[in-house]
Design goal:
A four-stranded antiparallel sheet has the order 1-2-4-3, with helices on both faces. It contains twelve helices and four strands; from the N terminus they run ααβααβααβααβαααα. Bound molecules: flavin mononucleotide.
């Protein structure tokens, strides 16, 4: 049954436990169609999606990333920035190809297109009552190993994964920053920001201590900065350059 747009967007939460049940073909078709109709920069469609439903491959990617959802979900979609396709046709048509992928904006464009496509897939899946969880570790943990495993050619780089399956849990919705911190009217507003941030930080701590299921004593700021610290050990630049990105400004 289709959910309303309102309920699809406002009741969404990441789902990390799935039933063994298969996703219906018509639901996967709807997800593919939604992906394909995503707006893209210049209509260049600088992205592709690799749909993994092979349990052995999903297990291998789980072992590389440590993210159990990849193993237990029914379909794991990997969204990649993709300049290979335009390169192939440009070469055949004798069009002098500009190495846009090598520029910073080229990378940003590919990441935006792939990310929007992921959001289309996520909303489509949620609207059919399915559960989803984006998996950023597919981008960061071992980009070269994963690129090899998936056979990614030059000009193609992993942006994010999306686990999709029939939900086996319904965790409480996480508190988000209040509208006043997210939506700025007619310019960036900083007055009262600190007070609102401290309040939000406290709200997240209370949520973490009282939510159903696993509880933690994490606050928001320490937890998030901890992720950024982890990011200092990623070597994304080298991996991206090896895939043909980020070679010039
Ligand atoms: C780009 C991106 C990458 C993410 N990567 C992971 C991940 O690797 N593992 C995970 O369990 N959740 C991941 N998440 C899910 C976030 O943790 C989750 O969206 C956030 O905690 C807010 O919770 P909610 O989705 O339930 O509202 C990711 C989300 C996004 C948007």
């Amino acid at each position: 049954m289709n959910k309303s747009v309102e309920s699809t967007l406002l009741s969404r939460r990441s789902i990390r436990r799935y039933e063994r049940e298969q996703i219906k073909n018509e639901d996967m078709q709807f997800i593919y169609d939604a992906i394909r109709n995503t707006p893209t920069s210049y209509n260049g469609q600088q992205y592709s999606v690799i749909d993994l439903d092979d349990p052995i491959l999903k297990e291998q990617i789980y072992e590389i990333t440590g993210q159990k959802q990849i193993k237990t979900c029914n379909h794991f979609l990997i969204f990649v920035a993709d300049y290979n396709k335009i390169g192939v046709i440009a070469k055949t048509k004798g069009i002098d190809s500009i190495p846009f992928a090598e520029t910073t904006d080229g990378l940003i464009v590919g990441v935006i297109d792939a990310s929007l496509a992921m959001m289309s897939a996520l909303v489509a899946a949620e609207s059919r009552g399915l559960g989803t969880c984006p998996i950023g570790y597919t981008r960061t943990v071992a980009p070269e190993k994963l690129s090899r495993l998936l056979g990614l050619p030059e000009g193609v780089a992993i942006v994010c994964g999306l686990a999709i399956g029939v939900p086996r849990e319904m965790p409480d919705i996480k508190p988000k920053q209040p509208e006043s911190l997210i939506i700025h009217h007619n310019g960036y507003r900083q007055d009262d920001m600190l007070r609102e941030l401290i309040e939000y930080d406290r709200e997240v701590s209370i949520y973490n201590e009282t939510r159903s299921g696993d509880k933690t004593t994490n606050d928001w700021a320490t937890h998030i900065v901890g992720y950024y610290r982890e990011g200092e050990d990623y070597h994304m630049g080298d991996a991206l350059r090896r895939q043909g990105f980020l070679k010039k400004d």
